[in-house]
Write a structure and sequence with these properties.
With 239 residues, this protein is an alpha/beta fold. It has helices at 11-23, 34-43, 60-70, 85-93, 106-120, 162-173, 181-189, 194-210, and strands at residues 2-7, 26-31, 48-52, 76-80, 98-101, 135-138, 141-144, 149-152, 155-159, 178-180, 217-222, 226-231. It has 2 domains: 2-121, Response regulator (Rossmann fold, 3-Layer(aba) Sandwich), CATH 3.40.50; 135-231, Winged helix-like DNA-binding domain superfamily/Winged helix DNA-binding domain (Arc Repressor Mutant, subunit A, Orthogonal Bundle), CATH 1.10.10.10. The chain contains 8 helices and 12 strands. The strands form 3 sheets. It has a 5-stranded parallel β-sheet, sandwiched between helices. Helix 2 (34-43) runs parallel beside helix 3. Residues 133-231 form the OmpR/PhoB-type domain.
Amino acid sequence: MKKILLAEDDLDLGGMLKRYLELNKFNVTWAKDGEEGLTLFKEGSYDICILDVMMPKMDGFTLAKKIVDINPEVPFLFLTARKTQDDKVKGLRLGADDYVVKPFEAEELILRLKNIIKRTHQQFSIQELPQKNTLISIGAYTFDFTNLELQFKNKRYKQLTEKEARLIYYLYSNRDQLIRRDEILAHVWSKNDFFSGRSMDVFISRIRKYFKEDPKVAITSVRGIGLEFTINNNLKPKK
């Protein structure tokens, strides 16, 4: 059962949505305000979040930003009674996968959720993944894709998320050449739009930090075009 975090302060709507989602085989955790939603997100693991925009204690936009800071891989959509274009743009810029205006049909919400989850879990074809138990040397690092682990000097260094591991593998597979942004988005995100590009930038910044201990490994941005992932074996790693 896919796990959903539902943050909705309207007790009637929240109770109805929780029951309907559970009837459709979702596991639902319901938060009655934004602060409770953040606490529950930190304590649990979710496949998708449904966030009402107007909530007490913490609005949906603020909650979404904090969720993205904690785990940018979790998809989310907004529920709102407001129809202004500015609100919709603000939500999408935060990385929302969808934006549903109240009132709406519960069946429509179910379809949107299923489409988002399906898209999220089909982002990388099995033919592009390394063989099981493959260890890859990247400068002073060892990349273990199967166990989602990056080791530094043979010691565990970072536990990776699945998307981080897929991105590292794609960059490594295309090392020492210019990789276009749209190619990275197509292979790792399965879509190429403004919001996916923003998500990719967050992941690239994080991965740069992971490899900062070895100056031989570099991710260089080529403005307006893409990236170069290089391993310069002529440089000596830090001691």
